[in-house]
Structure formats: C-alpha cells, structure tokens
Design goal:
single chain, about 325 residues, alpha/beta, TIM Barrel, 11 helices, about 40% helix
Length: about 325
Amino acid sequence: MYFPEYRLRRLRRTANLRRMVRETRLSVDDLIYPLFVVPGSGVKEPIASLPGQHHFSVDKLVEEAAAARDLGLPAVLLFGLPETKDEVGSSGSESDGVVQRAVKALKSDVEDIVVITDVCLCEYTSHGHCGVLKNGRVDNDLTLEHLARQALSHVEAGADIVAPSDMMDGRVAEIRDVLDEEGYTHVPIMSYAAKFASSFYGPFREAAQSTPAFGDRRDYQMDPANVLEALREVTLDIEEGADIVMVKPALPFLDVIAKVREKFDYPLAAYNVSGEYAMIKAAAEKGWLDERRAVLEALTGIKRAGADLIITYFAPQAARWLKE
C-alpha cells in the first residue's frame, strides 16, 4: 500500500477524528501538585521565580489542597520551609514541624487527597546540602539515619506516601526498614530514583530556600550525560523496596523515562520541574507561545515517554483545561 491509496491525513481531518485515534491520553488522574508550606498563619505569598505559585501557611495550604481536590487532582507533594535550620536538619524530623503540621491538617480537613511528603535535608540544613557534612562533604551513611527519622515523622503525622529526594545510596532500604519496624508496612515509598544534577532546579531552590551555601550537588545527584547509570539507580531502589520510582527532571530526560518504562513494570513518576515551568511561563508572558497548548503538549510528551504520574506546578491549570 502506498500513496495515493493510503493517506495518513485522513484521520487528522477533524477534531473528533483526531480524538478517536489518539494514542496517548493525559488525565487529571496522572497529575500531582507540589506545594510549599511555611510557618505562620494567613500566609499566601507569591514566589517570584515561579509565577502563579505561592508559599502557604498551613491554614492557606488546606484551602489550596481542597481546591485542588475539587478540580479532581488526586495528590499533593509537600515541601517545607522551617522556622529554624541547623547542621543536620533536625527541624525536619520534629513532630510539630511545618510539614508534619501540614500533613495533620490535610488529613483532618481535606478528604480524598493523597498526601505525599518530600524527604530530604536540604530545606532544613544551615548549609543547604541534602545530607550531613563530614570534612566538608556530604557523608552518605551518616545521612541515612536522619532521612529515615524524617520519613517516620511524616508517616506518624499521617502522610500517605514518603518521597526521598536526597540521592543518598541505600536510603530507600533504610527508610523501608524503619517504617516496617514501626508498623507502617502499608506506607509506599516513591523514590526519586534517577535525579539528575540539573540546571533546571534554579527556581525551586529560591522557592524552597535550599541553595547550597557552598559547592553544588554533583557528587550525589546524577550526571545528566548518563542513562545506563540511571537504570542502575532505579534497579537498586526497587530492590531496596521502592514502590514508585521517579525520573527528575522530565523534559530534558524523556529518553531516560522511556528506557525506565521499557525495562521496569513499576509505577513511574516524572517531575516537570521548576525550570521547565518557569520557561513556559516566561515565554507565554512575552506572547511567544500559547501557554495552554504548550503546557498540555509538554505534559502529554512526558506521559507519552512512559510516565504514569507527573509532578507539575501546572497541575491546577492543566486540570481545568482537561475538563473543558
């Protein structure tokens, strides 16, 4: 069969024809909404580097999560900005810490939304690195206990899923062991399995106030040039007990998402990170692209590459557009 008998344009002629043969379908069920919680009350402060995003105190966070739930979004992912920081990030594990208070409030006041918590030390350490320092470098094994303690405190507060993002070796196994020992065998771990040392995190670091005081994170986050190493990272996290694995960032690493999808049959998340969000927002503000079309195209591309779940700051906007 060859032209002119077979014409691929036949099934593109109308919107309904295109809809009928569409291969990848983006749904509100695929989306996770990341939120930043801060101390205080009545706080809803715009984040300059993430237009349309805010720092929320717990009371305002509850309102935002309820609105997200009403849009059909299934889950939120919490990041905390604490009142105090120290060398080992101890405030991240306090039972009355800002994330822990937020989790309790959400589980009490917002029905039917999954609460996921980011587990890392970077927001809570005075130096901004993701682990405990020894001789000026992040010490992998010294960090594990602190991460597990933080994860346990989130689960004790009511978190449905914990998501370690630190990229320490062995942290999934450590967290799984501690949760199981404390009777939380039912709580899943969503591991940032292949998290790359990316330039696309810049706006997030301002939003989370987690920029390292010195150096960078390239000795524990992955080299963006490596894909085989990413597959090894995912393999190890699954063997250690991860229930969901993640690739971060998403758009520059669609090939990695595709390869992880091809090799593993585990639920796969991808993080449409702050820099990806900010670029589209900035270009749309300039009138250089159609924001709605660009957002839905980008998210569909992430889904087409193989992601089951997409963490994105566009989640509320996308949910509204998908309903139209």
